[in-house]
């Protein structure tokens, strides 16, 4: 079988299993997904599923990616709300928190759970088959979305804030890491019911903390130019 035919077959089998996984998640939730349930729904054996997916965590990751469509569809709108990169980035956080706290288990699978391999490799595999999921996004945003390392994704976007004179280059990596830790901390707190937050309160509080963190590294003489209200 030629390489091209193998890729076509692989894409076809992925669709069978991911369609089935999506149905199981819709009906029972991502935490109740098993290889057997997915294989049965797809009309294949569990051993066939393992021919295409290394383990359950990978299949859950790929299926969970399908549930981020609403976030990706809204992201360009949020990224255009501000008048500079810092404002746009904060609005992108607003969009991300809105959707991630609405579907915490889904976003935990993608950005928090142990996958047993580098997430970047899984993301590359996913978008090789489902590249059309990104075609409606500007090229610049496609590049950012394709970066699964969340802090690196943030750093890629806020680099422009350095050019605009809002943030110093030395602070880029730090602010990207800190804001990621804020989101992860709040997500784990929310999912484990450690605070009595509604999903809206958890999202709003995360955005507030991200904004406070970001404003602390914005050059003092430029802070009045950042107008962001979630």
UniProtKB/TrEMBL annotation:
Give UniProt keywords alphabetically.
Answer: DNA-binding, Transcription, Transcription regulation
Q: Which domain of life is it from?
A: Bacteria
Annotated Gene3D superfamilies: Homeodomain-like, Tetracycline Repressor, domain 2
Domain HTH tetR-type intervals:
11-71
Kindly indicate which segments of the sequence are annotated as binding DNA.
Answer: 34-53
In alphabetical order, the GO MF annotations are: DNA-binding transcription factor activity; transcription cis-regulatory region binding
User: ATP-binding: is it a keyword of this entry?
Assistant: no
Check the record and name the Pfam families matching this protein. TetR_N (PF00440)
Identification of the protein by name: Transcriptional regulator BetI
Source organism per entry reads Halalkalibacter krulwichiae
């Amino acid at each position: 079988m030629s390489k091209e035919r193998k890729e076509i077959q692989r894409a076809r089998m992925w669709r069978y299993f991911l369609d089935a996984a999506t149905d199981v998640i819709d009906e029972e939730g991502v935490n109740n997904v098993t290889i057997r349930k997915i294989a049965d729904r797809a009309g294949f054996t569990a051993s066939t599923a393992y021919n295409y997916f290394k383990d359950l965590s990978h299949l859950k990751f790929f299926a969970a990616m399908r549930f981020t469509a609403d976030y990706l569809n809204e992201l360009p709108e949020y990224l255009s709300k501000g008048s500079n990169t810092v404002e746009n980035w904060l609005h992108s956080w607003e969009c991300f928190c809105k959707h991630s706290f609405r579907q915490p288990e889904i976003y935990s699978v993608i950005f928090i759970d142990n996958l047993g391999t580098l997430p970047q490799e899984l993301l590359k595999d996913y978008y090789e088959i489902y590249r059309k999921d990104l075609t409606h996004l500007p090229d610049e945003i496609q590049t950012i979305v394709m970066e699964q390392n969340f802090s690196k994704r943030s750093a890629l976007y806020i680099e422009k804030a350095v050019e605009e004179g809002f943030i110093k280059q030395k602070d880029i990596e730090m602010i990207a890491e800190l804001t990621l830790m804020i989101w992860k901390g709040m997500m784990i707190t929310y999912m484990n019911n450690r605070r009595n937050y509604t999903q809206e309160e958890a999202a709003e509080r995360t955005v507030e903390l991200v904004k406070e963190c970001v404003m602390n590294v914005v050059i003092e003489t430029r802070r009045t130019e950042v107008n962001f209200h979630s």
